[in-house]
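Hi D.,

Good news: the full-assembly prediction came through. Inputs first.
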Amino acid sequence: MAKIKFIQPDGTEQVVEGEPGMTVMETAKKHLIDGIEAECGGACACATCHVYVDDAWRERTGDPSEMEEDMLDFAFDVRPASRLSCQIKVTEALDGLILRIPEKQF
Amino acid sequence: MSADGTAGPAPIETDAVIIGGGPVGLFAVFELGLVDIKSHVIDILDKPGGQCAELYPEKPIYDIPGMAIVTGQGLTDALMAQIKPFGATFHLGQRVDALERMDDGRFRLVTDIGAQFLAKVVVVAAGGGSFTPKRPPIAGIEPYEGKSVFYSVRRIEDFRGKDVLVVGGGDSALDWTLNLQPVANSLTLLHRRDEFRGAPHSVEQMRALVRDRKITLLIGQMGALHGDGGALTAVTIKTKDGETRIAANRLLPFFGLTMKLGPVANWGLDLHENLIPVGTEKFETSEPGIFAVGDINSYPGKLKLILSGFHEAALMSQAAYKIVYPGKKLLFQYTTSSSSLQKKLGVS
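Then the structure:
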């Protein structure tokens, strides 16, 4: 299992257990994390599961793929640390991952 | 009368109107067709297929019975081939705004472009609602919408002589950049990165206009809007070098589509958590003659699966038959063995 910390725009923190193999989006939905809408259900087709990866973790989560980068065009307030959480797979190596939820999904 | 005050065309009279051309709406054409009910299909997208075609045309679906794997577009294409014998008429790029019962018991539907329909039964197969343009979550944008901020271009003349800011990196943003540049006083294209998803030749044309200094390309994101009473004067732009403010009195944000329930909520149907409750015998709504199938309906045990919607369409058609052909007895038949069904399918 991998512990994942979600930080809301107001600073509220929630730590949940991520199951390796699931995506971060699925983990967030399973634990009812606010602000992860995932309207398309994980098809990388809506950009409503947008998160900011904590700088210390960006190397481990990697960069968005070309398709994800295209999809991020539909997100609001995109930053260098932006990822779509449906495209991040939970692994043991991500134990301790810190993600921030944007102010608004589109 | 149409929206601009001129007399619209005569209403289209039909047995059934299906609202929504996703997989379940398409299969409803088939099931209604088998019982001799002719359909018109209205969809807000410019193509059939609904979410399958718009959100995941290339994504595999694994739970369609008999198809181990099929893409969203593949399923749409297969359904279009399957319903071809029934000659349904498609009215695309239109949203049904009004739905009301007439004195003669039929339903009158009016779309956002003024098309009118008179139907004996209505099938709401609207999925998650209508696809609508995403609105940038910028505080205070509402008063500008429809006056200075537009999510589509209905009249090019509204942009003549204006300082236009187009935001986005896909085909809509590029196409309107190219089409509005000749009429606008100035045109700025804003995108978050210097890469564009649009058609390569549109990107080429856009780059040529930038080279000729006919448009300005900015790499960055939108911030606050400035103006008064819905009249936009300037927009704050956040670039990697900081914030600037550019003059603009027309803003066109193109950030794709999202699903909203939309006018379904105004049709007088009972709703529960944005879904339409139905019974599991007929899939009829609180309004007799209006049915709801697919993701938009709810009933005990409902699963939002395409295959559930197919089943619902089959049972709905039996109930719709009784309204379209009152007093006639419907003989249940199999396509495998019924020569009359095979004739309708054009296979015998």
